[in-house]
What we know:
By secondary structure, this protein is mostly beta strands. The protein has one helix at residues 2-11; strands spanning 26-35, 42-51, 59-66, 71-78, 82-84, 90-93, 96-99, 102-108, 113-121, 147-164, 167-170, 175-183, 189-195, 204-214, 217-228, 231-236, 242-248, 252-258, 262-269, 274-278, 286-302, 308-323.
Amino acid sequence: MMTMLKRLNTILHPAHYQGRGKRSPYFEGWYFKLVDATGQYRYAVIPAVFLTAGHDEPHAFIQVFDAVYGRMNYVRYPLTDFSAATDRFEVKIGPNVFSADFIQLDIHTESLSIEGQVCFEDVKPWPVTWTSPGVMGWYAWVPGMECYHGVVSLDHSLLGTLNIDGCPVTFDGGRGYIEKDWGKSFPSGWIWLHTNHFDIPGTSLMGSIARVPWVGRSFPGFFAGLLHQGILYRFTTYTGAKTVHLEATAQQIHWVLEDELYRLEIAAERAETVDLLGPSLMDMGIRVPETLNAHIAVSLSKLGSSTVLYAGMGRNAGLEVAGDIGKLLVGGH
C-alpha cells in the first residue's frame, strides 16, 4: 500500500525523479535552458541517468551545449555519483546540484571548465491535477510508455554567475526554461521547439510532436502551450486538439493547431544545429540535432474569427527536428 501511495505521489510530481526501482533500459534527464539578458550567451545543461540494456555501462552524465559557439560536452560520471531526493526535485551528480530553484555546477575536464550557481525566480510549471498530471495529461498514468515528458518551468528569470572556461558570465535578468524526459528510449521521430524571448516578457511557447507506440501501432502525439499574460493556452492530443497542418522544409517548420476555441499557428525558422546525444534501448547513440538560435513566429487567434489574441516573434529559440518525421506531417511534404 505504501509503495502504491509513493508511486501515485511521484506521478503527481513529474519534476521529481521517477526512476526509483526501475530496471534497464531506462533513462531520465532534465533540460535547463539558460540565456543571459543580452542573448549573447545561450546554454542548455542536461543532467541525466542512463541504465542500458546493451553494451554501454550504466552511468550518469551532464551534457553542456554552448549554442553560440556550437560546442557540446558530454561529461560522464559513475552511477554511484547520482542521487535524487525523495520528497522534492533535487538531483545531484558528483558535486553538481539541479533543482527547480537553482543549478550549481562544478565541472572541470580537458575541454570544459564551468562552475558557479544560477538561481531561478518565479518559475511557471505546466499545471498538475489528478486527472491531468502535467503536460502528458492522462497518459502520465499509463505504465510502460516509451517516453514520458514533463515541463518543470515554462518561463522564469535568472540570477547568478557561471565561470565558464575562465570567463565570468552573468545571467542576471536572463530567461530560463526547464523540462524533462524519462522512459525507455527517445521516439523514432519528433519535432520540439521552445522560446520565451518575445517582446512581451513572460510570454513563452513550447511544443512537441512525436510518434507514440500504442498497442502494437503508433500515432502522432503532441502537446503545445502558449503562456501569455498569465494564461496558458493548451493544445494537446488528450484535450481533443488537432494538427491541421504540419510541414517541414530545410528552412522552416510550419505547424497549425486548432481546438474548439482557438487556432495556434507556429512558423519556426531553422538554424544551424549541433548533435546532442539521446538514449536508445542499447546506448546513448541517438543523434539529436539542436539549436538555440532559431526564430519562431507565433499567432493565437479565436477559431473562425479574425480576432488575433497575440502575435509575436520569439528569439533564441530551441528547435529539434530528429529521426523519421514523415508520418508526423499533415498537408506538407
